[in-house]
Predict the structure.
Amino acid sequence: MIGLIIISIFITLITLSIFIIANRELSHSVILFMGFGLGSVILFFLFSAPDVALTEAVIGTGVSGVVLLVTLLQIRGRELKK
Amino acid sequence: MNLKKEIRIETIVVSLVISLMTILLLSILLNFDVSTTNSLGSELLNINESTTQSANAVTSVVTYFRGFDTLGEVTILFLSIFGISLGLDNMNKKSNIFSYENRLLKIGVEVLFPLIILFGFYIIIHGHLSPGGGFQGGVIIASGFLLMFLAKNDDFRLNHKIITLCESFSGAGFILVGILGVLLADRFFGNFLPLGSVGDLFSGGLIPLIYIFVGIKVSAEITALVEYFIRIKDVG
C-alpha cells in the first residue's frame, strides 16, 4: 500500500516538474513549485526522514516560494514603470 | 550550413574528457559496496546512547559529532545574507510590495503570530528529543515574521538593532561554546555539561545549548532576508 502511494507521488512529482518548466506564466510555475515542495514533504516523511521533511515544509513550501513571488513582482513593477 | 566547420577541437576534447569521466564514475559506482560504507553510520548509532544521551540521533550527529560542519554552514548562511544586505539595503525610503488591505489576514495574524513563534521555540528547544532543531525552528520563527510583513503593510517595522544584537551574540556564543569545549573537555565542541537521561528536556549535554544559539541566529538572518526582499524602493 505504501509502495503504491510512493509510486503515485513520484509520478505526480515528475508531471508537476514538467508543468513547472513548460508553463508560460512564471507566477503559475512558482505556485506549482510550492506544490512540488508539498509532495516531496510527504515523500521524505514516508522515507523516514522527518528532519528533512520539516526543513522542506518550511523552506521549500513557505519561504522560497514567497521570495520567488516577490522577486517576480519586483521585476514586473520595474518593467511597468519603464 | 557546413557542419564540418562548426565542430571545433575544443568541443571534441571536452566531449572526450566528459565521456572518460562518465566511464570512470560508472566504474566506481558499479563496484561500490554498500555494506562497507554503512559501518560509520552504525558505529555512530552505537556510541550515540553512551556519549550524548540524545533521543534523536540526527541532532547528535549534527551538533556533537560534526559540530564543526554546523559552524561552517552557519558561516555560509551569514555570508550569503551579508551579500544580500550589501546589494539591497542602500535605499532610503522603502515601502512594502504588497499594498493591499486584507482584514481577514490582519485579524488572523494577531492570533497566529504568537502561536507560530511559540511553535518555533518548541522545535528549537526539543531538537534533541523530536525531529527538528535549530535551523528548522529558526525558519519557522522567520515564517511567522513573514506573515506579519504580509498582513501589516508599513505598520510593522523591524528594529534592526535588536536583530543585529541577536545575530552577533548568538554567533559569538556558538563559537565560545566550542572554545570552552577545547578548554574543559577533549576537543572543539566537546561536551562539558552533565548528560542527564534519555528523554528528559534537560539532557543531551551541549546539544540544546548549541541549538538555541543556532536557532536565534538563523531566525534573525532569515527574517532580515525576508524583509530585504519584501520592502522595495518607493518609485512614486
In short: The mean pLDDT of chain A is 86. The helical segments of chain A are 2-22, 26-46, 50-81. Residues 2-81 of chain A form one domain. Chain A touches chain B at residues 50-51, 53-55, 58-59, 62-63, 66-67, 70-71, 73-74, 77, 81 (CB under 8 Å).
